[in-house]
Each structure stands twice: as C-alpha cells, then as structure tokens.
Amino acid sequence: MTQVKGLCVMDVDGTLIAEEVIDLLGREAGCEDEISQITSQAMRGEMDFERSLRERVALLKGLPISVFDTVFKSIHLSQNAQEFISILQKNGILVGLVSGGFSPIVERLAKSLDIFYFSANQLEVKDGFLTGRLVGEIVTGQVKESTLEKWRTELGLPKERTIAIGDGTNDLLMLKTAGHGIAFCAKEVVKAEIACHVDTRDFLEVLPLIDFLE
C-alpha cells in the first residue's frame, strides 16, 4: 500500500460534480424553482445552512428512493476530476469527500472513484419513500471542518499536508483550516475570503497549486 503523504478533502455538489443534487431532486418532486432559490441563498450565506437544508428536504417528502437512480444518471463530474483524483492517489494523497448533500449519491460517487473516506447527510426513508426529514448529524460547515481534522489526525498528517476544495459558504471553515484551501468555481463571498481559487471548471488547473506533489 502506498504511504499516505497527504489528504485532500473535497466538497461534492458544485465542486466534484457540476450539479446541485438537491436541485435535481427538486425537479423530480416538481418544486425545482423553490428549492433552487433556497439553495442559492444558502450558498451565498444569506440563510443558515441547516435551516435551508431542512426546508429543502421537507419539500422532497413522498419521493421514492428509486429517485436516486434517476438523479445519479443525471450528474456529471467536473472536467478532469477523475484524472485529478487518480493523480493524487498515485502520489500517496488520500482523497475524501465531505458533502452537505446526500449519502445515496455520495457513496456511489466515492465507490466509482475508489474513495473510501466520505461523509454526507442521511435522509429518513419509510416504506421506500422519503419522509421529508433528515436523520443523524447534519454535515454543516463546522462538521466539514471537524471531519477534515479527524481524518488528518487519524492519518498522522501535519496541517501543511492537507488540502480542502469547495465552492460555497458551507466550505469556508474547512478551506481556512486546511494547509491548502482552494475555492473551486466558488461564490464571490467565498473568493473574498480565500486567496487561492480556480475559476475554470477544470481540476487540472488545481494541480499547480499543490506544492507537495512529486
């Protein structure tokens, strides 16, 4: 097994993938516009993330769990994301996903990319349908930050060997905590606080920003 030389923690929606999964679920539920509006407010920091998430999830009540099969087929990895992850892994940099999105999608993405560290929100399901409620810990900005630190500690890595990549205000804490915080196609409010950013949706543009790649 390759020695772990670093850790890269990535946001999923709007970062690893181009779409916001909650918006795609909203389309299936017939309330895409309402959910998209709440999503935009949350990503700009105009609404508390946990409150916005609960409001959006409530609108999904009644969707069958098979909806995740449909949505998974609709998402697209950001350009060169798979190659970027492969390069990191070959260089001994472990990649993890932390998402304010949902485990049925994040888990599938992780498995498809040979990623074994991931964390996402759990939706309550009853009799094969979404109840409109969440269960367990909600992946807030604070949880993203603490997850990065937890994984870093488990791996015995110094802060300087950590990378965080994200696009929304929910990512700010982990971007500031990591040794290398990179705002990727981020909202203006995020770029205002994170000096290092990539504005082209191409993960190969991120590689030159990681100074411990061999």
UniProtKB/TrEMBL annotation:
Its EC number is 3.1.3.3. Pfam families: HAD. GO terms for biological process: L-serine biosynthetic process. It is an enzyme of class 3 (hydrolase). Keywords: Amino-acid biosynthesis, Hydrolase, Magnesium, Metal-binding, Serine biosynthesis. Signal peptide: none annotated. It comes from the Bacteria. One of its GO terms (molecular function) is magnesium ion binding. Its cofactor is Mg(2+). CDD domains: HAD_PSP (cd07500). The active site is at D11 (nucleophile), D13 (proton donor). It catalyses: O-phospho-D-serine + H2O = D-serine + phosphate; O-phospho-L-serine + H2O = L-serine + phosphate. GO terms for cellular component: cytoplasm. Belongs to the HAD-like hydrolase superfamily. SerB family. PANTHER family: PHOSPHOSERINE PHOSPHATASE. This is phosphoserine phosphatase. It comes from Streptococcus oralis.
